[in-house]
Fold:
Amino acid sequence: MTGRPDPAPPTPAPHAPATVAVHAGRVPRTPGAQVGAPLEFTSTFHAGGATVYARDAQPTWTAFEEALGALEGGEALVLASGMAAVAAALSLVPLGGVVVAPDAAYNGTHATLDDRAARGELSARRVDVADTGAVLAALPGADLLWLESPTNPLLQVADLPTLLAAARERGIVTVVDNTFATPLLQRPLELGADVVLHSATKYLAGHSDVLLGAVVTAATDDGRALRERLARHRLLHGATAGPMETWLALRGMRTLAVRLERAAANAAELARRLADHPAVDRVRYPGFGAMVSIDVRGDAAAADRVAAATELWVHSTSLGAVESQLERRRAIPSEPHTVPENLLRLSVGVEDVEDLWADLDRALRHSAISA
Ligand SMILES: *Cc1c(COP(=O)(O)O)cnc(C)c1O
Structure:
């Protein structure tokens, strides 16, 4: 004993994202305290404390928001669904404002822009987000740049650093829907985005059992000012995330890194094999992530036959789950017409890749034969 106070413990090294996904947003390590996140069902709280009413703040939200914020490198707000997050982000557009948006992206985003444009609330300039020059040319006079990358379902990739920097120079607010990439593959705030958006329903939650959404803003003064406006929208529009959904999504997020690693490896292998398949005209695969779209040789009916013939792949809308899913997107009436009729979107899951291939290959051959 020297009588000197103990030196302060060294600052821990920043952890890798896979570690952050497991550990961020946990309660302090107090002896006897629970290890997992709290799950609290209450609409109100005893007066005089930090939490007042559950439309404003909830303990279960805090855990999820801390974890997603840590992964994206910002501060997150959880909302009732991805579409609630879309509505919150679009609330940043002033009345009569101009939005530059992808000509093919998530159809709910398209439909919202169309509805709001029809009411005269905003106007939308549609651009091919893979054409950097076209996006840059559409920016003058815009209020908000909406990007999705890779896009749903064409899997086009936008040059985020260039586009976000150009928008920032002009004072245009930028939103990046990061649902397909996840923060493990792309962190838009670091590339200059103002708002990152997630349908947490997809990869973050990952098990086809919840609807949930989120927005993330930078931990800066400007970011916090935006977050205030988004939080106010959440509060006043009642886009309230349920505690059970939030808890399940956080539980799902704990395994995001391992799920995505396996799913992405499966997707890379399937994309490689599909490129040589006689029943496939075109493979759309950005080279990362676990989404692959294919143009089936033939028409919409041929693609429908494939979707109906798989036994392992689940024929259903949605994506990002442990189970592999497929869907002909144009079967949905609101899907943009820039999406080919014969396109099947494949959300590759974490099953054994040989089983996935055998099922898909059989369905594709069956479709070609029965044509
Ligand atoms: C599913 C999805 C949404 C909407 O999310 P919900 O949770 O279904 O409301 C938004 N953006 C993208 C890219 C999506 O895939």
Summary: The longest strand covers residues 97-102. The chain has twelve helices and twelve strands. Residues 81-83, 86, 106, 108, 148, 152, 177, 179-180, 199, 201-202, 211, 213 surround pyridoxal-5'-phosphate (CB under 6 Å). The two ends are 85 Å apart (CA to CA).
